[in-house]
Specification:
The structure is a homotetramer of 345-residue chains. Helix content of chain A is 40%, strand content 19%. Chain A has 345 residues and is of the alpha/beta class. In chain A, the strands form 3 sheets. A 7-stranded mixed sheet of chain A has the order 2-8-7-6-5-3-4, sandwiched between helices. A 4-stranded antiparallel sheet of chain A has the order 9-10-13-12. In chain A, helix 2 packs parallel to helix 11 (241-250). Chain A is globular. Chain A binds chain C through residues 70-71, 74-76, 99, 131-133, 135, 224-225, 227-229, 231-232, 236, and chain C through 70-71, 74-76, 99, 131-133, 135, 224-225, 227-229, 231-232.
Chain lengths: 345, 345, 345, 345
């Protein structure tokens, strides 16, 4: 079986496992107060060229989104997001559980258009009934998006500009940021993200770690007593070292970017091979997620040897499915898959 | 100034004020345990032809919606509603504050289409990721809707049928139910509502009371310890008599329906007069809310002598505005308004 | 039956009923934007000698407590209260429902001792684990307390001083404030309350109104967008006039204080009479609540003609019960009760 | 520096690290659907002699407590706990954040007395105002307690009996269960815990794992759609294998018990040595936590070479401090410490 179903089917990158083993018996203080957390933060600040960044390590992605959103918003505020955004659809109502509404805006290829956000905010501000409505208090985007698409630097600048005009923070969910930054043709760098966003996270779980997301507050805007807020949400890890050592390793010798690059190379290899066999893509993705339209018969045959994800029904006879590569994808597996894949008819 | 801006600009219907005065010095137990609450419940059960109905009186509409939804749903469930539903837009996130997502479906004239609800539920049940999503746990409709439109009996039956198939309750928000039941041409009666819905409320605030909504559980489905739940939400009225006396009066000698009929007569008078002057309506409403398209110049002039509500911009030169009648609308005011209204050009 | 079971067994004071009737057909804007709310606020500001006071009218007491506490606290803060405080015991967990812990301190006659509060805050601040604990973010007291006792001005000053040192607000729940202010021997005035507390409420429900509590922010500290917060909690009254007219009447010609004085006179009459018959009191209360120790046999006999509240078991043969007077208590009822009451043996 | 400050200063037990490394590159499904989770559950069921046990792996202790309590309670219920219980004091209000009150009962050596629980439940049920109060919906205990003390089997049976009479579940927080089960003289076994409790957790974080708590529902009482509830609380781990492999290892060849036994041996060595030097203990603890009374001068000197935890001030000149041993404590460190420790004067 060749697995392309997600970018979290393996454990951790071997360099991470090695460091965890090496440091295992060191006696360290808990709750993120250890030297590896400190070192990892310093390296991330440096990689972001954002010396004032305040950083906190959390375990998972939905956890990160709910804590960031809940701690940054006033009680009467909601978060603006694409209707296909992870917070809108696939977090089991975790944001609403904290009391906040997700204010959906129709997506374009998984992205929020800056002009659509501006229109939404303008209409809210002009509405005579706005005191009876949820106040938009933050804009949430993901980069790459759930569709594997990327914002351009120009788009991020425009979103950032809208947010600053309306004085609400821009939050970038970077669960797969490493893959986004490594794409051919992207003009968005880590320092760009740090400059244009008020908060963002650097995902570890899907980019080589066993678990872990680094939350970065770029504008001296970490909520007061954030550790207590994290604890209150049941998200404070006793052995914070587990996150510290992992992120310290990811930001040593550019491991985070190297992981991204490998996955993108594999995804491009896959993409070219699939295209050469005559298949079409649901949309053009530069990242590690490729959404391909297969005939249903082909899909069923393929599923016997390859795992991938159902995406959506295209028509009676065709289905879109997602292939994901990762730091752990082997070139031989991609080539074997391309051999198995029949030419499209 | 002639006020058509809402159906709650006056105090209470005079018969209610009279009963409140007459009973004022009686010593009665608190928290809804008084004889007027008991009597009101009995009269409502009878009017609904639903002898098993369990009834609780609450103060306001948003309060009613949030308590019904929060107490009926499991923590991981959300409520399906039209994207224009009151719970979706104009309750300041009160539903989300209780931890539950409002799952929006595009409306058609303010209404939820039964087939759209069915499709939504089907897609959810077929989604391989549904365990990571909010479970639809209730369907919310309002009757009349925010647009002043009404469901037919056939539509209510179809919605009820879908809900029963998927074993989730149907909740009808009847904040303006009295006006809906009194409309010409409607085939929906109070016993129909009680039969087809699992929970509904009979609005008092907008139909002649100082305040008050009667929540009716029709299927022996009132949540256990509902009084405690109400108290926990800060919604238990110490002097429950205030609600008991009012609803007892509303359901004595058909006052609730008489109030509805008067408002509808006034609305029809208004509607015919406006149409005769050559204006168009945003949509055809049989209820006490009429949404009319005015030229902006006419609108501005009219606003000097008449109050109404902004609804939406139609084009550069035209605006849709809402006129609402009520139990307190005087025929002379309607006629005076029609005199003031210039013929459309 | 003579009712002493609570101070909310009747409807509203006749002057209030009269004003509600007189203003009933006036057309007024909703949500508290009417002239009666404005006038009532002005009169309250004047009675408090607090021209900058920001005032909002809510319907009920638990509702007031939960909204004030939830809107003033940070998410990680709790409210310090006596272990017998209303918020600690008899609000069905309404405070916790908003996500905030009530931090209990042992009471002394229903009161919080300033030194106990100071010690609690000192210990918290000195605790090395405080980041893993709930931060004390407010001090809640009631005046009169649940036991019918009163703070002295000196005690209020000391509590206020502690709160200012620790920079947390002092909130006084005045559900029965009118009775407290009217007591013989009290040196606490309404302007004192306004000066020493950061927020307080003036209770209407138990002091002559059908419903209603006035929330008063004395230090330009009303949370931003408070109306939206109120709406979000389901507590915004559409016909705000109902509260405006009532409080406007209560603060016209000193009605609020006149109501208080009458109840206190009745309570003193009751207290003297009961004492003369040889009974003991659980504690010495100057307010409209008198807690008396009765032999169980006497209690059972009395209960046939008089209603009162169980308070607690004193020993095998004696029970403490509460008698409450109100604005509506008639002198003839008190005298009749004293005739019925047998001499203690 | 010799560290006795907690039982989570090291990483994971070497056998766990070895298994994580060995399985690291296996491709496995996410969210706990992997074979290691399945195998670990089977081994735990077997160790508990509870074949019907439903098991879910979570990351942390506070997270476990809040999810178990929130998912098992009705909205109007609270959890009964010792006033010193972890949920009462050191979880930053995480339980209240989910909307539920912690109902505190005075502890005796960190434990809840069965008779005190019974009295509390009796009083609640007899209270005429109970509908205005938080309903006790669960009893929470920890074993070992925060004080390092243990329940006897007889006490657990009595608590279990009270809970069954009142039909509320008994929840045992076993964050340090491994140390409790390994104590000399305890008559409580893992199958006893499974039989007597309705839910309990087996702590991994403090007993040899990098992170992880196994939640065990023993009575076919796992809440429906528990995975979705976990996701909604931000607690679903994408790479569930991290927990599965760890617990599978802990329950292979009795590792969990071996870890416990080692820590207890070290604690007993420490305890005897400290006693021989003439010091007193705040209370007699059989577990891995020893609370010792030191002269302040001795404490300050010792702190230069040994880390331990402040517990409480005993008098002006003496302080109680906590020493904790773990799976990783080395005998040589204990002996070295005992050499450093001066004889008490």
């Amino acid at each position: 079986m060749i697995l392309f179903e997600s970018d979290y089917t393996e454990g951790a990158h071997p360099e991470i496992m090695k460091r965890l083993a090496e440091t295992n018996l060191e006696q360290l203080p808990g709750y993120g107060n250890d030297k590896y957390c400190a070192s990892a933060k310093e390296k991330i600040r440096s990689a972001c060229r954002c010396p004032q960044a305040e950083i906190f390590f959390l375990v998972g992605g939905t956890q990160t989104n709910l804590i960031v959103i809940d701690s940054m918003l006033k009680s009467y505020e909601g978060v603006v997001a694409a209707d296909t955004g992870h917070v809108s659809t696939h977090e089991a109502g975790a944001i609403e559980y904290t009391g906040h509404k997700v204010l959906p805006i129709p997506h374009v290829n998984g992205k929020l258009e800056p002009e659509a956000v501006r229109r939404f905010l303008e209409i809210f501000c002009a509405d005579g009934n706005r005191e009876h409505m949820v106040f938009p208090g933050m804009v949430y985007i993901s980069h790459p998006t759930e569709f594997g698409t990327l914002y351009t630097k120009h788009e991020l600048q425009a979103l950032s500009q809208v947010c600053r005009e309306y004085q609400i923070p821009l939050f970038l969910d970077g669960a797969r940021l490493g893959y986004g930054l490594a794409c051919e043709g992207t003009d968005v760098t880590l320092p760009d993200v740090a400059e244009l966003c008020d908060i963002f996270c650097i995902g570890g779980t899907k980019v080589g770690a066993l678990c872990g997301e680094a939350v970065i507050f770029t504008k001296n805007n970490m909520p007061k007593h954030f550790l207590t807020i994290v604890k209150q949400h049941g998200a404070l890890l006793a052995k914070g070292r587990l996150l510290g050592v992992q992120f310290d390793t990811l930001f040593t010798d550019d491991l985070y970017l190297r992981i991204g690059r490998h996955a993108i190379e594999m995804a491009q290899l896959l993409k070219r091979g699939i295209a050469e066999k005559g298949y079409e893509f649901l949309l053009d993705s530069p990242t590690n997620q490729q959404i391909v339209i297969l005939g249903n018969e082909t899909m069923r045959e393929l599923a016997k040897e390859v795992s991938f994800n159902f995406w959506e029904n295209v028509d009676e006879n065709h289905t879109a499915v997602r292939f994901a590569t990762s730091w752990a994808t082997k070139e031989e597996d991609v080539r074997r898959f391309l051999e198995i894949l029949p030419t499209s008819v």
